[in-house]
TrEMBL record:
Residues 1-25 form the signal peptide. The chain crosses the membrane at residues 254-279, 302-322, 358-378, 412-433, 453-476, 497-516, 536-556, 584-603, 609-628. Gene3D superfamilies: 1.10.287.1260, 2.30.30.60. It comes from Flavobacterium hungaricum. PANTHER family: MECHANOSENSITIVE CHANNEL MSCK, POTASSIUM CHANNEL RELATED. Its main location: membrane. Keywords: Membrane, Signal, Transmembrane, Transmembrane helix. Belongs to the MscS (TC 1.A.23) family. It is found in: Membrane. It is a multi-pass membrane protein. Residues 626-692 form the Mechanosensitive ion channel MscS domain. This is Mechanosensitive ion channel protein MscS.
Length: 784
């Protein structure tokens, strides 16, 4: 019995005295004389005061009962504890029966660490509820401080008067005490189970860490006897039974992990569904408008054969990289599914020899996975691994070249081939000397390094095809069917993607070698170490993050044009000035947001930032006036829009078409092919003639003489009919005919008409030729 229960017992003695004729010595009432001043001088409690005291005690006991009862959050806690127990039992049973491969041990360690954290949180929650019960008991104990209630308990006569009320009070107390005892017992049992589970988790973590240490790269610490000292006495029936048991264990672990990561996998499928819809919509638009055949001109290898398989390849690549600590069965099923999807893509594109060699690689990888997962380490498994390693080395020296010829990026495949051969050779060496866990790990890493670089090469090509499809579809929607230089554009776009896929490949390899966690921890420690220069404290990670964000901001502002369908060889007549203005604003927003985010990520304090801005202000005052002037002028030009990309302008002695507008300079293509770079500050400080501010048409004129017998009305009719036939002339605007001289048989004319400013010379030349032919047919002489 706890101390609190003793206190409650003490209270219940008081509450039950009125039911027992023995107990307290009866207190004799001292008679008092009634006087006229009793109303003001008598301090004796009245019946009303006693009733209020009893009611107050009843309310305390009632609230104590309600607060003692478990709420929904407590039952939710018990449910979490049950789920934690199920996870722990699964992991503990798997530790006993599963093969000690690195993948499973990494997943076990991760799950055990999470279970350990869950148990700490659950233990904390139980302690909080125990503390809550202690507070409730204290409220009941505080009833002893109620003097009115104590006085009533001592007065036997009064107790009889409130017999019914005291009976109800006692009933409430007994119910509260019973519930409190029950719930406290439940919490104590839960706490005891939590402590036992924490001990089990600690022991399991020690076991897992020990098995992971055995996979460390050291040839001097034997894990098993050398191969020539090993004898395999296993019976075939036992092997079959062992395989069946291990399959069940691996299935349970994989099923648990699948449920554990269900949310992330569903999210990935959702985004892949959006990407599938987006690509299908673009392809459907091109088919409906008769442009789908042009996709073959872009050297598409995958999107022109369907959308589903390329999307599956993207999803599986992402799933492999984002599930570094998945159990071996789950991850190897992902790998095999990815290789199967690649096989479907390669089926009708690769040569017969390359396809056979690819299928052989898949067969070796499948055999390796089966041996690693379901065959107990012994002579049979070790000899089979050595056989696969030997075949792998031969494959890397002889047959792998046929695969390299089919890939988009061959430079990385060369290094992956060297790594593949080297890891297979090391695996044989470690296997011979008894380092079996390390040998198995190196074998799997060798095959994964090779197959993963193939998958990532395909991933890069699919991404580039998606971007080219987006650019071409956008241009077709704008009425621009002209093909562009997709090869140089692909070379430009693939550079940042190569960095991303290199990172993906490296973390997959490092994770398979069981060095990613320690490598990541070391890098994180290096990047997060505080450094101090003067009064400024910074970390290397903040500086690296600062430059990465700025690099990404500049990269995005350069590449964002491609998503608008804009490229450098834009058709000047079909240029969309409004879209270009939106593009410039988007680039400006991306840059500003990138710089602000970079400053925030750098962790620089605002007071230090104000000092930096002050120093920048001094720099502006001393020598950066022109730079700041051009920058601000660029922003004004973007929003004020006196000129836009595609406009034909004249600035001082320079004229030409605006090619591009930046935050510092504007580029103009001169008619002679020169590119004129003008600072934005100069544009705002000079008069600008913009020929295309309102539209793209220019009023041009032709002067000529007509000799022959005719009248002005006939000349006017011939001119108007001729201009109507010319497609380059804008006949929506009325042409103008002026006579500078009229005499018998001789007329001097000035004709003004509208045409595209981009094709002025061509239109004037065509007009002169057609007018000459028209007047000659009428027997008139034409000279200009």
């Amino acid at each position: 019995m706890t101390m609190i229960r003793k206190h409650l017992y003490f209270i219940t003695l008081f509450l039950s005295l009125f039911l027992v004729q023995q107990g307290f010595a009866q207190t004799k009432a001292v008679p008092k004389k009634e006087s006229s001043g009793r109303l003001f001088n008598d301090t004796t409690a009245t019946d009303s005061d006693y009733l209020m005291a009893i009611e107050k005690a009843g309310e305390v006991l009632e609230s104590a009962y309600n607060d003692t009862d478990f709420e929904g959050s407590t039952f939710h806690l018990f449910g979490e504890m049950k789920r934690t127990e199920s996870k722990l039992e699964l992991i503990l049973s798997s530790l006993k029966g599963a093969n000690p491969n690195v993948r499973n041990q990494q997943m076990y360690r991760l799950v055990l660490q999470e279970i350990q954290q869950e148990l700490d949180e659950q233990n904390k929650a139980i302690n909080e509820r125990n503390g809550h019960l202690e507070e409730i008991k204290k409220r009941v104990i505080d009833l002893r401080k109620d003097k009115t209630l104590i006085t009533l308990l001592r007065d036997t006569i009064r107790r009889k008067q409130f017999k019914k009320e005291f009976a109800d009070l006692k009933k409430r107390y007994i119910a509260t005490d019973s519930l409190m005892t029950k719930n406290q017992s439940v919490l104590n049992n839960k706490k005891r189970l939590t402590v036992q589970r924490k001990i089990s988790v600690s022991n399991a973590l020690v076991t897992v860490e020990g098995k992971l240490e055995k996979s460390g790269i050291s040839i001097f610490n034997k894990e098993y006897p050398s191969l020539w000292q090993t004898s395999d006495s296993a019976v075939k029936k036992k092997i079959a039974h062992n395989i069946k048991a291990k399959i069940i264990i691996e299935e349970n672990v994989a099923a648990y992990y699948l449920g554990y990561k269900a949310g992330g996998l569903i999210t990935l499928c959702f985004f892949m569904g959006i990407l599938f819809w987006y690509i299908s919509r673009n392809i459907k638009y091109l088919k409906e408008n008769g442009h789908s055949k042009n996709l073959s001109q872009f050297n598409f290898k995958y999107l022109n054969r369907g959308v589903l398989i390329p999307i599956v390849v993207i999803a599986l690549n992402i799933a492999v990289v984002t599930n570094l600590y998945a159990p071996a069965l789950f991850l190897e099923l992902l790998q095999l599914a990815l290789l199967g999807a690649l096989t479907v893509l390669f089926k009708n594109q690769w040569s017969g020899v390359a396809m056979r060699n690819w299928l052989m690689l898949l067969a070796l990888f499948f055999a390796l996975c089966f041996l690693d997962l379901f065959i107990t380490i012994g002579l049979l498994q070790r000899c089979a691994f050595i056989a696969i390693n030997v075949l792998g080395i031969r494959y890397g020296l002889v047959q792998i070249k046929t695969l390299e010829e089919q890939l988009y990026i061959k430079r990385f495949f060369k290094w992956a081939s060297i790594l593949f051969i080297g890891l297979n050779g090391l695996s044989i060496l470690y296997n011979l000397f008894g380092r079996v866990s390390l040998s198995n790990m190196l074998s799997l890493t060798a095959f994964i390094s090779l197959t993963q670089i193939v998958a990532l090469s395909v991933l890069l090509k699919i991404f580039l095809e998606i971007i080219l499809l987006q650019i071409y579809t956008t241009r077709v929607k704008r009425g621009i069917e002209k093909m562009f230089d997709y090869e140089s554009l692909s070379d430009t776009l693939k550079k940042p993607f190569i960095i991303v896929i290199s990172y993906m490949w490296l973390i997959v390899i490092a994770s398979n070698l069981n060095i990613w966690e320690s490598l990541r921890a070391a890098i994180q420690k290096l990047l997060s170490h505080p450094n101090t220069i003067g009064s400024i404290t910074f970390t290397l990670g903040n500086i690296v993050l600062f430059f990465i964000i700025i690099w990404m901001a500049h990269l995005l502002q350069n590449y964002v044009a491609y998503f608008f369908g804009e490229i450098d060889d834009e058709n000047e007549e079909n240029i969309n000035k409004r879209q270009h203005s939106k593009l410039l604003i988007t680039r400006l927003v991306v840059l500003i947001a990138g710089y602000l985010l970079a400053v925030a990520a750098s962790g620089m304090p605002l007071d230090k930032l104000s000092i930096l801005l002050g120093a920048l202000g001094v720099g502006v005052g001393l020598g950066l006036q022109n730079v700041v002037n051009n920058f601000v002028s660029g922003i004004i030009l973007i929003f004020d829009k006196p000129i836009q990309i595609g406009d034909v302008v004249e600035i001082s002695s320079e004229s030409g078409r605006v090619k591009s507008m930046g935050l510092r300079t504007t580029k103009i293509n001169a008619p002679n092919g020169a590119e004129i770079i003008i600072p934005n500050g100069n544009l705002l400080s000079q008069n600008i003639t913009n020929w295309t501010y309102t539209d793209n048409f220019k009023l041009v004129e032709i002067t000529f003489e007509i000799n022959g017998e005719t009248i002005p009305e006939e000349i006017n009719a011939i001119v108007n009919e001729t201009l109507l036939k010319l497609p380059l002339v804008n006949n929506s605007k009325t042409s103008q005919i002026y006579y500078s001289a009229i005499s018998d048989g001789k007329y001097k004319l000035l004709i003004k008409f509208w045409c595209s400013i981009y094709r002025t010379e061509e239109t004037i030349s065509s007009a002169r030729q057609e007018l000459y032919s028209s007047f000659k047919e009428k027997g008139l002489t034409f000279s200009s």
